[in-house]
Amino acid sequence: MENEDFDGMILTQVNNIKYLSNYSPTSFAVCIIKEDPLILTSPMDKELANKTSSIKVEEFKSFSEIEKIFKKGGLKKIAIESSLATGIYKKIQGSWDLEIKDFLETERMIKSSDEINNMNKALAISHKSFKKLNIREKWEKSATEWEVAYELGYLMRENGASEESFETIVATGANSSLPHAKCENKKLETPILMDWGCKFKGYCSDTSRTIVHSEKQEEIFDIVLEAQTKAIDSIKPGIKVCEIDKIARSIITEYGYGDNFIHSTGHSLGLDIHEKPNVSKKDETILEKNMVITIEPGIYLEDTFGVRIEDMVKIGHKGEIMGNLPYKI
Questions:
Q1: Are the C-beta atoms of 124 and 323 separated by less than 8 Å?
Q2: 11-29 pLDDT, tens per residue?
Q3: Total H helices, total E strands in the chain
Q4: How many CA atoms lie within 13 A of 136 on its CB side?
Q5: pLDDT tens for each residue of 86-120
Q6: What's the rounded Cα separation, in Å, for the pair 276 and 293?
Q7: Residues 228-277: tens digit of each pLDDT
Q8: Taking the CA of residue 149 as centre, how many other CA atoms within 13 Å lie in the half-sphere pointing to its CB?
Q9: Which residues sit opposite 255 in a β-bridge?
Q10: Would you call 166 helix, strand, or coil by DSSP?
Q11: Mean pLDDT, to the nearest integer, of 168-182?
């Protein structure tokens, strides 16, 4: 902010506030970053904020307070998040210059040792829970997609997670061709594509596995695994994430399924399940040590089936796969 001559910044995104202060708002809150930072929070959240925040907390009464703070501090050039709601933007407009900046999102790309430890713990919980679930046994006993998703969520909480990172995906049969399929109250079919994760101390994990059955499914599985393996092998500090995407995509294209790889190769994660950078064609972010990304290529044959394999990867001297969950279940 100093390098770009900003006088202050306004944050309302929950996990940006948590990242800076350790206070995770459960209702509306505004964090004003300046020489003496301040969080304005609702009366409903005041007690929680006072107990957890490392930044000074006051009660939020009206948006006119923010204007007074700007004027008193002589703040004129103010950074705002791209996620700032339009309604709030209109209320804080005044005689100052508001400009969208991703200072916090960029800062959050590099994980501290504590953040990585929390993500490793979240991943260990999610993998332990998946193994205990025993998905092949569920299939043999004709369990439903809903039952599997519900039980996995319960197991993750039982093993120490606070919640799921996102709504668990259990997509079976033809539904597996939909990357973000919703669970249905139907018996498991093959293949079984599962995408799940949980949170530990606010930090997310994310894994995908596909349990295949037929010869054709095995063929597609092997192609996806080759693409994932070679993409991970290419990871090192200094490489652009778009180059990693290109490697995974080129392998799938060589086998004739380029048009069936319909999403990016991966993404970063942390307090949010999707963070910068996005491992995609257009993202030219250069990887640095202690970034954490997913690598999750997939092939989706419309109305037939799909296969996706996903692991979290920490950037060290090279790409280090986090966890050791087998690929073939």
A1: yes
A2: 999 999 999 999 999 999 9
A3: 10, 19
A4: 6
A5: 999 998 888 789 999 999 999 999 999 999 999 99
A6: 9
A7: 999 999 999 999 999 999 999 999 999 999 999 999 999 999 999 999 99
A8: 25
A9: none
A10: coil
A11: 97
Mean pLDDT computed over 290-314: 98
Q: Contact 167/197 with Cβ under 8 angstroms?
A: no
The token pair that represents 304 in the structure block: 């037939």
Residues 6+ apart with CB under 8 A from 255: 223
Burial profile 78-109: b = 16 or more Cβ within 10 angstroms, e = fewer: bbbbeebeeebeeebeeebeeeebebbbeebb
3-state SS, residue 293: strand
Six-digit token string for 315:
């950037």
7, 98, 201, 321 from 207: Cα distances, Å: 41, 38, 18, 11
**DSSP string across 172-204:** EGGGGGSTTPPP-SSB--SSEEEEE-EEETTEE
286, β-bridge pairs? 240
Q: What is the pTM of this model?
A: 0.95
Calpha distance 181→167 (Å, rounded) = 10
Q: Nearest 5°: CA angle at 76, between 73 and 77?
A: 125
Q: Which residue has the tokens 């002589």?
A: 74
Report helix, strand and coil shares of the chain as percent, to nearest 5: 35, 25, 40
Q: What is the mean pLDDT of residues 303-319?
A: 98
The sign of the torsion formed by the CA atoms of 299, 327, 113, 128 equals positive
